[in-house]
Design brief:
Helix content is about 70%, strand content about 0%. It is mostly helical and about 230 residues long. Helix 3 (about 30-50) runs antiparallel to helix 9 and helix 6 (about 100-115) crosses helix 8. The longest helix is centred in the last third of the chain and has 27 residues, at about 155-180.
C-alpha cells in the first residue's frame, strides 16, 4: 500500500525502495500481492497504450520475473522458506507447519460462523473463544499465552460478525473499488484489488493502516468531485 501511495504522488524512487523492502518481510502473501499489483498496473498500461514498446517492456519484465522465480525456487533457502511451507505436509516438513496451522485456524473460524451465522460470535471474540471451538483439533496447542487470530480477514468477518457484517464489508469495499475506478485513482484501485487478495492471508481487518488507505481513496474521490463541481460553475 505504501508503494502504491508513493506512485500516486509520483515519488518513484521512494516507491522502488518501498517495493524492495517487501522482500525483507519474507512474507509469501505480501510478495504475491505486490507482484499482483504491479501486474495489474502493467496490463493497464499495455491495454491503454497498445504500443510495441510497452508490450516489449512488459514481455521482458514478465520473462525476467519467471526466470527469477524459477531460479529462486531452486535455491535451498527459498525452497525451504516458501515451497515447503506452502506445499509440504506436516509429516514431510521440518519447518513451522504454516499450512497446517492456517488450515486449523480456518476450521475454527468456520465452526464459529456455523454456530452463529447471522451476527457471528462478536467483534474481537475469535481469540477469546478459540479454545471453545479448537479443542477437537490437533494442529494448534490450545491455551497458549498469545491471542490467536484467524489470519484470514474473510473468515474473521464471518466468525465474528456473521453474514451481516460480511455483507456490509463487501458492500463497503465494492464502493471503494467503484470510487477508485476513475482514471486519476486507478493506481489505488489496483492496490486495493491486491489488498483484497492479500486478505486471504492477512492478520485482521482491524489493522489501522488498512482503513487509512480506504479513507484516502474516499477522500481523493471527494476532492475530485468538488473540483469538478467548481470548474462546472466557473
Amino acid at each position: 500500500l505504501s508503494m502504491a501511495l508513493a506512485i500516486q504522488i509520483k515519488a518513484y524512487y521512494r516507491a522502488i525502495f518501498l517495493g524492495c523492502s517487501i522482500l525483507s518481510t519474507l512474507s509469501t502473501g505480501a510478495l504475491f500481492s505486490a507482484l499482483l499489483y504491479l501486474g495489474i498496473i502493467g496490463m493497464r498500461m499495455v491495454w491503454r497504450r497498445r504500443t510495441l514498446k510497452v508490450f516489449a517492456i512488459a514481455t521482458a519484465v514478465s520473462g525476467l520475473a519467471i526466470f527469477t522465480g524459477v531460479k529462486a525456487v531452486s535455491d535451498p533457502f527459498v525452497n525451504g522458506l516458501v515451497v515447503q511451507k506452502v506445499f509440504v505436509s506436516r509429516d514431510d516438513s521440518s519447518w513451522t507447519d504454516s499450512r497446517e496451522v492456517r488450515l486449523d485456524l480456518l476450521r475454527v473460524g468456520m465452526k464459529m460462523f456455523i454456530s452463529s451465522p447471522l451476527f457471528g460470535t462478536g467483534l474481537a471474540q475469535y481469540g477469546f473463544r478459540y479454545r471453545e471451538y479448537a479443542d477437537k483439533y490437533e494442529g494448534i496447542a490450545v491455551g497458549q499465552a498469545q491471542k490467536t487470530i484467524p489470519n484470514n480477514v474473510y473468515i474473521e468477518l464471518l466468525a465474528e460478525s456473521g453474514l451481516v457484517g460480511f455483507v456490509l464489508f463487501v458492500l463497503f469495499t465494492w464502493r471503494a473499488l467503484s470510487f477508485a475506478a476513475m482514471r486519476a485513482l486507478e493506481n489505488l484501485q489496483s492496490a486495493l484489488i491486491a489488498m483484497l487478495v492479500m486478505f486471504l492471508a492477512f492478520p485482521s481487518f482491524s489493522i489501522m493502516y488498512v482503513w487509512f488507505f480506504l479513507g484516502i481513496i474516499f477522500g481523493l474521490r471527494e476532492q475530485h468531485s468538488l473540483l469538478a463541481k467548481t470548474q462546472a460553475r466557473n
